[in-house]
Automatic annotation (TrEMBL):
Highest taxon in the source lineage: Eukaryota
Taxonomic source organism: Vanilla planifolia
Protein name: tRNAHis guanylyltransferase catalytic domain-containing protein
Pfam family, one: Thg1
Single GO term (MF): GTP binding
Transmembrane segments: none
Gene3D superfamilies registered for this protein in UniProt: 3.30.70.3000
One annotated GO biological process: tRNA modification
InterPro entries named in the record: tRNAHis_GuaTrfase_cat, tRNAHis_GuaTrfase_Thg1, tRNAHis_GuaTrfase_Thg1_sf
Span of domain tRNAHis guanylyltransferase catalytic: 9-103
Amino acid sequence: LLEMANSKYEYVKKFEVEDKLPPCNWVILRIDGCHFHRFSAVHDFEKPNDVNALMLMNSCAVAMLEHFPDIAFAYGVSDEYSFIWKETSQFYQRRASALGHINNQYNTCFWKLVQSGKSEKEAQELLKGTLAKDKNEMLFTQFGINYDKLPAMFKKGSCVYKDHVEETVKIDEAGNQLKE
Ligand code: ATP
Ligand code: ATP
Ligand code: MG
Ligand code: MG
Ligand code: MG
Ligand code: MG
């Protein structure tokens, strides 16, 4: 990043806003429990509605509203909770795809720790509660990795799309294509 500032690559920063959710729009963030069908079986949830689990989810949602003043409203059902953020919120600089990046940054740290001899459990413990900047710092000081320099495909993923190509064809007066 330092190299990029005031260099001919400065213009790259303009592209960062591409990922931004438009201003003056309310944002909905929905979180759905992963593999809760199995999770609820393993923890003997009362079926189909375990009240304790629902109350725990509700308590978590209350904590979210206390922690993030920009959340205006939350709605939960089953293993999911949706949070509505005020249209003025600048949370995560209104980035739409911050989560993909966060995941890969976590995984990069996690596997570096494991490759350096920690068990998966120890690595998980070490990373618990860390912020993005902590992980950046850990990667740099412990492993000499500048996260910003990792391939974009790792950090942001890949896109596949169809593009228009221009092709000139010759037609006769009746509109039939002429062979080259
Ligand atoms: P995925 O990882 O794709 O989200 P999933 O297993 O979490 O899959 P969902 O479609 O999200 O499946 O459905 C959540 C499941 O979790 C429900 O079908 C139900 O079996 C279970 N579940 C969630 N909350 C409760 C609850 N309070 N009491 C009982 N079961 C629950
Ligand atoms: P689910 O069945 O709910 O999708 P999952 O085990 O597939 O669960 P995901 O959350 O989808 O888990 O994450 C995919 C996981 O697969 C990553 O966490 C990573 O461990 C692994 N993975 C995917 N692609 C690669 C890759 N190119 N190189 C190394 N590991 C990868
Ligand atoms: Mg689920
Ligand atoms: Mg998967
Ligand atoms: Mg669900
Ligand atoms: Mg996946």
